[in-house]
Recover the amino acids of this structure.
């Protein structure tokens, strides 16, 4: 026997260059603003300057008279068609255009439709709205006070500002764990409001054909099929007459999951005027009115034994929902999947109590590059674990190791009810420590302190829950969260793969072609991937929450395997052999023991249309709607090293190591690109991104001068590592990776800064860690210079 | 206060990607809208309206300019290069190839602006350090890549431009 390794075959694990790049580098992408239809009109939105006010009157007469203005739409007009309010994806309602009151700054009040976009904007200034300001509520704590004015007085039976109350875990068992604890460590923190801020804002071109009644709506949608159903429900249009086309999307990150008023008004205007109507949001509109993220207040405790064993976790959480509950998350889980808060640790008892409140702020709480509040949960436990290590006087890395769920414990049922599929947390931790040089760094840190310098080392060993989800537990507005693939092989052996998900930069045209290629032996360049057109793709719930690979990726595998089953029958016919005598070899069926007798997939495809046996249907295609048996649980350890300036509070990242385990990697180049992008967004959240409000409810962070995004200058370099622990229930073992780094990294950055100050007793620092905030902490701890 | 008086129309001449155009424009027309709406060059994108994100970056006489806050009339008599003018027929510019080779793009929205500032950088400094590249592209925001691969893309272009010349 020779020890020659079998040749690496197939298309998994190959860094194939992206198919989509050719058009983007040529400036030939097709984004929403690039779509221009004959006879098209342009729409602009007038937004409220007040956060809370009664609308006494809206006078649109001067605007309507401006030459070039075709129509001015108000809530009153929409109300005549029962369109003034719409449902949100979390089962609440949101105003399309305000009728009675405005409930946040930037709320949509009226729309102008004009022949020219400049004229549409001009006319906004000619609309006179008489507002009567009302008291403003900008925090959920204030919203829940007895004396607080009721923000949603439009809702029957809503007598306060409570949105939901929800809990998970075992209160009694947790109570017991705390009663028996040797030590209890508490963390009170706020994960501040931030914004996905994709570089392309939202927009649509609505084209309702007055003759056929068909509504073709081009829109920036991460979930075109779900949006079609919502449109059918909102507008009462027959669903077969609605075609949503989501073109190239300039980033989404969860921001393009909800349905926004602009889409609805543009469609209504097109319906009323019989002409296509285009609405392109401006950046301020995007930042102040569309799906923000986080804004979670968390107060929790960890119960510990003297030897450092974690025995219980309890967390109280309060979320600021803005004026509407519009998270767009699975209906059973009111605070998303926040109950993954036990993280990577074997904590026998846990209890989570969550509550949401209405405020006079934009609705949202969308899963910004996150699987429904997993980011907040991961941040909380990783911050708390580090603080607990300090209180126990042990090393934060070793404390994590001591409490990790062990590889042999999988599948592992957590105290809040998740069934973790697979994991090897220690391997990822060890690799991260090795790569960052942890032992040496701790020495260097001691030395630095003696020299008066502040060095901090932060870790985060996160576990995510992604890939929603199994139909028994996961639905949005009742629609189960399966996803789909339809694979059709053409006579010449080329193929088209149609999916229910929708890329916004994730590289689906390449990754999913690779999956099909791996299963069928048709090279990826011969497989077109189509997404985003509801008339021409199977129904699916879209791309967010790292669900594309776990759901549509699995559907692609199953569809391809079904194609292969039929191909086997065709091959048997062509080779005049029994199916039992055939075996699959990369891209062909071969007669066992007679390798010269073979038919390639391309030959078989041709026969499917030209020479199929009697009694068999022609064609070579298959569809699969994949209902995942479980969620997937990607994990990893991130290590961040920072140095903090005692004079200014500025902190500089010296090193970032990210070890990720997302199961099988389909295209490592794309996976690493996703991780680096997520690390940067996590860094942005930790360091600078903040949507905040003054006491009158004015949004601070309404443009890119105030809402800071990391540039190449601040963004550190990243060193990536990997471990591979396949998901046992996914057909190719992949877990999804798009969000791991946004979920895991904020805690690592903050932990690093806290670690730099921890010897002086600093434990509590809330994001974003602006220099002034860090300087205040330095000053308080006596470390400032 | 908006009045109904007709705006003045200016006649301008600008060379865009090597082709001279004589155009009648309102004084308030932004260069990005001239390119996108009048010349159908939709590769130049609008990301922020406030000169912060750089998605709208084009070259005016070889210098990167954010075309969302630059009036079309300011381009009178000047040469404008957009992403559509980067390739020479079927021959991609090294910067374009670099972005593809090094996975310097994901959603593609910032890419045209990023490539144009990179081209301007390499013309001034054919062999930039990583720090010089990061500084040069720091007026352009990318929300997807984390910049590391953009830096590599520019390095790839620098290396391959030298080899080609």
């Amino acid at each position: 026997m020779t020890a020659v390794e079998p040749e690496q075959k197939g298309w998994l694990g190959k860094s194939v260059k992206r198919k989509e790049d050719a058009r983007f580098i040529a400036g030939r992408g097709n984004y929403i603003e690039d779509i221009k239809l004959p006879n098209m009109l342009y729409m602009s939105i007038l937004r409220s300057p007040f956060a809370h006010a009664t609308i006494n009157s809206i006078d649109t007469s001067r605007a309507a008279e401006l030459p070039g203005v075709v129509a001015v739409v108000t809530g009153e007009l929409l109300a005549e068609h029962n369109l003034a309010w719409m449902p949100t994806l979390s089962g609440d309602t949101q105003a399309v255009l305000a009728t009675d009151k405005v409930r946040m700054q930037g709320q949509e009040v009226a729309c102008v439709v004009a022949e020219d976009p400049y004229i549409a904007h001009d006319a906004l200034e000619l609309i006179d709205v008489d507002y009567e300001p009302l008291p403003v509520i900008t925090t959920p704590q204030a919203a829940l006070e007895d004396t607080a004015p009721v923000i949603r007085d439009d809702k029957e039976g809503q007598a306060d500002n409570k949105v939901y109350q929800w809990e998970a875990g075992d209160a009694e068992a947790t109570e017991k764990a705390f009663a028996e604890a040797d030590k209890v460590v508490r963390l009170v923190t706020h994960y501040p409001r931030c914004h996905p801020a994709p570089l392309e804002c939202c927009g649509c071109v609505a084209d309702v054909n007055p003759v056929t009644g068909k509504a073709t709506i081009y829109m920036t949608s991460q979930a075109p099929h779900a949006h079609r159903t919502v449109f059918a429900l909102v507008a009462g249009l027959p669903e077969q007459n609605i075609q949503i086309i989501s073109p190239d999307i300039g980033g989404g990150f969860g921001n393009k999951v909800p349905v926004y008023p602009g889409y609805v008004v543009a469609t209504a205007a097109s319906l009323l005027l019989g002409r296509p109507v285009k609405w392109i949001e401006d950046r301020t509109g995007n930042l102040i009115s569309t799906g923000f993220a986080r804004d979670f207040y968390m107060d929790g405790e960890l119960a510990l034994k003297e030897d450092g064993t974690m025995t219980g976790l309890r967390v109280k959480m309060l979320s600021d929902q803005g004026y509407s509950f519009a998270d767009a998350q699975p209906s059973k889980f009111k605070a998303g999947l926040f109950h993954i808060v036990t993280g990577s640790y074997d904590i026998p008892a846990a209890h989570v109590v969550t509550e949401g409140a209405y405020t006079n702020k934009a609705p949202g709480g969308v899963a910004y590059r996150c699987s429904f509040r997993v980011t907040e949960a991961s941040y909380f436990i990783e911050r708390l674990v580090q603080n607990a290590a300090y209180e126990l006087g042990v090393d934060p890395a070793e404390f994590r190791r001591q409490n990790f769920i062990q590889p042999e414990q999988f599948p592992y049922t957590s105290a809040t009810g998740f069934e973790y599929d697979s994991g090897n947390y220690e391997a990822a931790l060890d690799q991260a420590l090795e790569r960052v040089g942890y032992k040496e760094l701790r020495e260097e840190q001691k030395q630095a302190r003696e020299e008066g310098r502040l060095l901090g080392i932060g870790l985060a060993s996160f576990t995510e829950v992604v890939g929603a989800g199994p139909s028994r537990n996961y639905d949005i507005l009742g629609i189960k969260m399966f996803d789909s693939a339809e694979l059709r092989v053409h006579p010449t052996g080329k193929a088209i793969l149609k999916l229910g998900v929708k890329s916004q930069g994730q590289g689906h045209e390449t990754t999913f072609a690779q999956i099909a290629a791996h299963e069928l032996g048709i090279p990826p360049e011969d497989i077109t991937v189509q997404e985003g057109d509801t008339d021409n793709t199977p129904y699916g719930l879209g791309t967010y929450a790292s669900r594309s690979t776990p759901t549509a990726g699995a559907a692609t595998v199953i569809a391809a395997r079904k194609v292969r089953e039929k191909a086997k029958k065709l091959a048997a016919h062509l080779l005049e052999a029994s199916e039992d005598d055939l075996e699959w070899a990369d891209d062909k069926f071969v007669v066992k023991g007679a390798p010269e007798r073979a038919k390639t997939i391309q030959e078989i495809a041709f026969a499917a249309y030209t020479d199929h046996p009697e009694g068999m249907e022609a064609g070579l295609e298959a569809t699969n709607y994949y209902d995942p048996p479980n969620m997937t649980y990607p994990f990893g350890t991130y290590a961040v090293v920072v140095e903090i300036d005692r004079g200014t509070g500025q902190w500089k990242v010296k090193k970032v190591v990210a070890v990720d385990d997302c199961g099988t990697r389909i295209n490592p180049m794309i996976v690493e690109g996703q991780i680096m992008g997520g690390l940067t967004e996590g860094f942005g959240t930790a360091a600078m991104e903040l949507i905040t409000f003054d006491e009158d409810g004015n949004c601070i962070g309404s443009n890119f001068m105030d809402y800071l995004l990391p540039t190449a200058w601040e963004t550190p370099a990243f060193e990536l590592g990997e471990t591979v622990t396949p998901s046992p229930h996914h057909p190719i073992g992949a877990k999804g990776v798009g969000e791991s780094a946004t979920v895991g990294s904020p805690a690592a950055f903050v932990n690093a800064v806290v670690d730099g100050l921890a010897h002086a007793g600093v434990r509590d620092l809330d994001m974003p860690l602006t220099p002034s905030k860090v300087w205040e902490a330095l000053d308080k701890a006596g470390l400032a210079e | 206060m908006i009045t109904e008086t007709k705006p003045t129309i200016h006649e301008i001449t600008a060379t865009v990607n090597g082709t001279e155009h004589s155009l009648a424009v309102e004084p308030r027309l932004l260069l990005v809208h001239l390119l996108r709406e009048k010349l159908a060059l939709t590769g130049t994108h609008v990301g922020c309206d406030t000169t912060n994100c750089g998605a709208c970056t084009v070259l005016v006489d070889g210098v990167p300019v954010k075309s969302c806050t630059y009036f079309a009339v300011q381009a009178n008599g000047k040469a404008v290069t957009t992403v559509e003018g980067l390739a020479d027929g079927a021959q991609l510019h090294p910067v374009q190839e670099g972005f593809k080779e090094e996975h310097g793009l994901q959603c593609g929205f910032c890419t045209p602006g990023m490539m144009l500032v990179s081209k301007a950088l390499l013309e001034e400094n054919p062999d930039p350090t990583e720090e010089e590249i990061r500084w040069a592209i720091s007026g352009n925001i990318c929300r997807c890549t984390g910049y590391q691969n953009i830096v590599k893309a520019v390095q790839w272009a620098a290396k391959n431009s030298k080899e080609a010349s």
Observations:
- The first helix of chain B runs from residue 31 to 38.
- Residues 10-85 of chain B form a domain with the Ubiquitin-like (UB roll) fold (CATH 3.10.20.30).
- Chain B touches chain A through 58 residues (CB under 8 Å).
